[in-house]
């Protein structure tokens, strides 16, 4: 009896310490981002330009992680991190969006949360400063999943989102990229049998984020300006749920980047999630199966970031490089660009 009593007293003394230790333990969070995949090599940029990309990606990662550490939701973190990249002329989203054949900037974006699988998307918008915020507004403040063009812009205006003149998205770098593609288009028409390749770095690009919050909920978001010299009305995979963006607490959160037509036809984001959920593959195995096997077999280029509820993540890509990074509870951002 005395032994039992002593054990009870000892247990009573230990419980508060254990509870206190649990309260002080950092939440199990993870935040992963990408800034587009393509022909990105060390020889294609100067050290100064590389530093600009790394600094901006670190800023975006820290922004999302800070929200998660304060108890914010995975959706909050995804939106905030992507807004940082949308406001930068470095990336093909928001301010840095590429031009269409007609010389316009048409933006697409989507966001999805894994708990209820609610999602929102906008496509072909030209005056919304941060399309990812418009996508979230569609998800949370409308009965719809996707809005396009003028309708999406009117909705964003009613929701009080920041509206800008289309000239806000004009950048000299992207304008030159369009002129180069227009010249190559003329060369192809004049020499239909000649092999004239486009510059992937100026033509492609997307930004995206996936997050796991302290409550164990996943979210994914993607934003893009599409492809340089795209035809009027063209929409890629980024705003299409299951193609370029997907999140489900029962599987994974995914954001993709690459040639959208392939990601749409192969429903890449959902395929990765299905392989994880139904076949029991790891995030790395599921990503490699789709990005390195299925897409490479049909010459589909690009990559994805994938995150599960255990904090496991993968960043597969089959191009020369992909701007990518991650940050956990320790607050240390990790940024990669090339094939390491």
As for the CATH topology, it is Glutamine Phosphoribosylpyrophosphate, subunit 1, domain 1
Determine the number of helices (DSSP H or I, runs of at least 4 residues). Answer: 10
The first-level CATH class is given as Alpha Beta
Task: Point out poorly predicted stretches.
Answer: 13-24
Major sheet characteristics? 8 strands, mixed
What is the CATH architecture assignment? 4-Layer Sandwich
Name the strands of the widest sheet in spatial order.
Answer: 4-3-2-6-5-1-11-12
- Average per-residue pLDDT, rounded, comes to 91
What distance lies between the first and last C-alpha atoms, to the nearest angstrom? Answer: 63 Å
Strand elements, count: 12
Overall radius of gyration:
22 Å
The percent range for helix content is 25-40%
CATH superfamily: (Glycosyl)asparaginase
- Class inferred from helices and paired strands: alpha+beta
Helices and strands, in order, run as HEHHEEHEHHHEEEEHHHEEEE
What global shape is seen?
Answer: globular
- The count of domains is 1
Determine the strand fraction and express it as a percent band: 15-25%
Describe the structure.
With 340 residues, the chain is of the alpha+beta class. It has a single domain (30-338), classed as 4-Layer Sandwich (Glutamine Phosphoribosylpyrophosphate, subunit 1, domain 1), CATH 3.60.20.30. Helices cover 40% and strands 21% of the residues. The strands form two sheets. An eight-stranded mixed beta sheet has the order 4-3-2-6-5-1-11-12. It has a four-stranded antiparallel beta sheet with strand order 7-8-9-10. α2 (47-69) packs antiparallel against α3 and α3 packs antiparallel against α4.
């Amino acid at each position: 009896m005395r032994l039992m009593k002593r054990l009870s007293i000892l247990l009573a003394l230990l419980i508060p310490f254990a509870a206190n230790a649990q309260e002080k333990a950092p939440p199990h969070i993870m935040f992963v981002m990408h800034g587009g995949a393509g022909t990105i090599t060390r020889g294609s940029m100067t050290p100064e330009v590389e530093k600009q990309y790394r600094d901006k990606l670190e800023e975006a990662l820290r922004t999302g992680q800070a929200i998660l550490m304060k108890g914010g939701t995975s959706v909050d973190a995804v939106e905030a991190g992507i807004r940082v990249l949308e406001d930068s002329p470095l990336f093909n989203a928001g301010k840095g969006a590429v031009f269409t054949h007609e010389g316009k900037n048409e933006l697409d974006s989507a966001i999805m949360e894994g708990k209820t699988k609610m999602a929102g998307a906008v496509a072909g918008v030209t005056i919304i400063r941060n399309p990812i915020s418009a996508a979230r507004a569609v998800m949370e403040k409308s009965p719809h999943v996707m809005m396009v063009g003028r309708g999406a812009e009117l909705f964003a205006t009613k929701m009080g989102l920041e509206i800008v003149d289309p000239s806000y998205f004009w950048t000299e770098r992207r304008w030159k990229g369009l002129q180069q593609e227009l010249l190559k288009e003329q060369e192809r028409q004049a020499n239909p049998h000649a092999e004239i390749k486009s510059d992937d770095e100026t033509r492609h690009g997307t930004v995206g984020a996936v997050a796991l919050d302290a409550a164990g909920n996943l979210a994914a978001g993607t934003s893009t300006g599409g492809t340089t010299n795209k035809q009027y009305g063209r929409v890629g995979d980024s705003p299409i749920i299951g193609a370029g963006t997907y999140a489900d607490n029962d599987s994974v959160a995914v954001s993709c980047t690459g040639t959208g037509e392939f990601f749409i036809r192969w429903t890449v984001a959902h395929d990765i999630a299905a392989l994880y959920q139904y076949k029991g593959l790891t995030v790395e195995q599921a990503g490699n199966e789709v990005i390195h096997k299925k897409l490479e077999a049909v010459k589909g280029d690009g990559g994805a970031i994938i995150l599960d509820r255990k904090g496991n993540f993968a960043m597969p890509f089959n191009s020369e490089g992909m701007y990518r990074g991650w940050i956990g509870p320790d607050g240390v951002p990790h940024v990669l660009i090339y094939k390491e």
